[in-house]
Amino acid sequence: MSKLIYSAIMSLDGYTADKDGNFNWSAPDEEVHAFVNDLERDVGTYLLGRRMYEVMSVWETMGTQDDHPVIQDYARIWQAADKVVYSTTLDTAATPRTRVEQQFLPEAVQDLKAASGKDISIGGPTLAAHALKAGLVDECQLFVTPVVVGGGLRFLPDGLEARLELLEERRFGNGVVYLRYRAR
Predict the structure, then answer these.
(1) How far apart are CA 101 and CA 40, in angstroms?
(2) Cα dihedral sign, 7-11-14-16
(3) Residue ranges of the domains in the chain?
(4) Is the pLDDT of residue 1 over 90?
(5) Burial 55-74 (b: 16+ CB within 10 A, else e)
(6) 3, 45, 1: which is closest to 137 by C-alpha?
(7) Half-sphere exposure at residue 9, Cβ-oriented, CA atoms within 13 angstroms
(8) Rounded Cα distance, 166 and 106, in Å
(9) Which of 17, 149, 180, 182 has the fewest Cβ atoms within 10 angstroms?
């Protein structure tokens, strides 16, 4: 069975986007991006909400020879994976290897985990909240950025109770700290 992994970059105060929806403060430097690339190599499917899909779909056209090698690498990783977009407003996907689902069904995700030979990544805190509350998330990977944004979109949903076991930690030169937890 594959793992469902929730991975995100967040502020020190626990937000993935500030109160205005901005997340430009979270752009990884080359060292962090290369590390993220290595983590994402085992992902066979991305589960995304509409907003996260719209942000990430730029990777379909990035990665040209004019781009930095770390960008080229991530573009190849993204383009090789399947994507499932959960949206009530999209009828069709604009990118290859992508299908649209109208609603998040925990049973369907459990079936996908059982059938997949590669890990599954869930992107975006709104969609991840459904998977966390359903007990589907096997690991959380946090990249804590040394910035405080004072409010916005939280990494973890209000009301969630969970026990986690720290599996790995790493500190980067720019002050970002990576934390990897297993759900217990």
Answers:
(1) 23
(2) negative
(3) 4-183
(4) no
(5) ebbebbeebeeeeeebbbbb
(6) 3
(7) 21
(8) 25
(9) 182
Whole-model pTM?
0.96
CB 126 within 8 A of CB 164: no
- Beta partners for residue 178, in sequence order: 143, 170
The CATH code of the domain at 4-183 is 3.40.430.10
Cα of first residue to Cα of last residue in the chain, in angstroms, is: 16
The yes-or-no verdict on residue 37 having pLDDT over 90 is yes
User: Is the CB of residue 176 less than 8 Å from the CB of residue 146?
Assistant: yes
pLDDT digits (tens, 9 = 90+) for 112-134: 999 999 999 999 999 999 999 99
Both structure tokens of 158: 């209000």
| Length, in residues, of the chain | 184
HSE-CB at 86 with a 13 A cutoff on CA atoms is 19
C-alpha torsion sign, points 85, 67, 155, 3: positive
